[in-house]
Amino acid sequence: MFKPFRILQSAVLAIAGLGLATLAVADNLVEGQHYEKLPEPIETQAGEGQVEVTEVFWYGCPHCYNLEEPLNAWVGEQPDDVAFNRMPATMGGDWNTHAVMFYAAEELGIREEAHDDIFHAIHEEGERLNNADSIASFLSQYDVSEEEVHQALDAFGVKAQVNKANARMRTMRLMGVPALVVDGRYLVTPSSAGSLENMPQVAGALVERVRQERED
């Protein structure tokens, strides 16, 4: 289980947006209270000079759905040295089916367009999207045929991506989602950040910490 949230008063004020600089938040973050270190760092895919922030999520998770709006807003404000990506969690059953859907949409070049709509369909319209036919029918609205979707769902490259995500999940030893992983080392959860809305701000503070570490 994720640890209960305990945070220093100064960091609370900063994260709440009451005027303290992001740098001050970074200085006040405490391992075990505001974030955890992964037991083993994972390989990042960021370019040179960039700091990677990875969202780990499941389309069927209501907390992941509720995180999307504040997270997307935060991502849109980040400078070029922040490389943001998403990784679907693989914990069996519908989790893995949705991971295949995510990477199939990426294979078809429609992931960015379909991502928010998938969340909305599941949580607002009662869609389950937990089998190939329902996924093919849903994704066919994005100028691809159902046959093309089926082919993507069975593609070797998609299966390889799901296997890679599964390996990264095992390395991270995640116990739940949503989660944000900064620089392949730092883990932010709803409990450590204090709320879903605070997760991007804590991740941003950790990004600043990584920048400082690289300058030292």
Q: Please report which band the strand proportion falls in: under 5%, 5-15%, 15-25%, 25-35%, 35-45% or over 45%.
A: 5-15%
* Poorly predicted runs: 1-21
Main pleated sheet: 5 strands, mixed
Lateral strand order in the biggest sheet: 1-5-4-2-3
Q: How many helical elements?
A: 10
Order of helices and strands: HHEEHEHHHHHEEHH
Q: Residue share in helices?
A: 40-55%
Molecular shape: globular
* Mean pLDDT, all residues: 90
Number of strands: 5
Estimated structural class? alpha+beta
> Terminal Cα separation, in Å?
34 Å
Global Rg: 18 Å
Structure explained in plain terms:
- The structure is a single chain.
- The chain is α+β, with helices and mostly antiparallel strands and 216 residues long.
- Helices cover 51% and strands 11% of the residues.
- The protein has 10 helices and 5 strands; from the N terminus they run H-H-E-E-H-E-H-H-H-H-H-E-E-H-H.
- It has helices at 9-15, 22-28, 62-76, 94-107, 111-124, 132-139, 146-153, 156-172, 190-193, 199-215; strands spanning 36-37, 51-57, 82-88, 179-182, 186-188.
- The chain has a 5-stranded mixed beta sheet with strand order 1-5-4-2-3.
- Strand 2 (51-57), helix 3 (62-76) and strand 3 form a beta-alpha-beta unit.
- Helix 4 crosses helix 8 (156-172).
- It is globular.
- The two termini are 34 Å apart.
- Residues 1-21 have low confidence and may be disordered.
